[in-house]
Give the backbone structure.
Amino acid sequence: MKWLELVTVAGATLIAAVTVVTLYSLGVRLTAIAADSQQASPGIKKSFAYVCFGLCGLAVLFGLYLIIPYFSG
């Protein structure tokens, strides 16, 4: 067994999982801040929240692209 490849895959998986969870959590937090905001324009925070959700979705779709052989073959 090639241990370096196993460690590489495990590291990439850990980094990807942390990135997706962080982006989603940041999106939820920004949405909550925008909803509770008493400021005149909470739209910027909500826009950043949607960007975080979009990046999270793109990361998931890229992961599916790498996993499903039909798309990467």
In short: The chain has one domain: 3-72. Residues 3-72 form one domain. The mean pLDDT is 90.
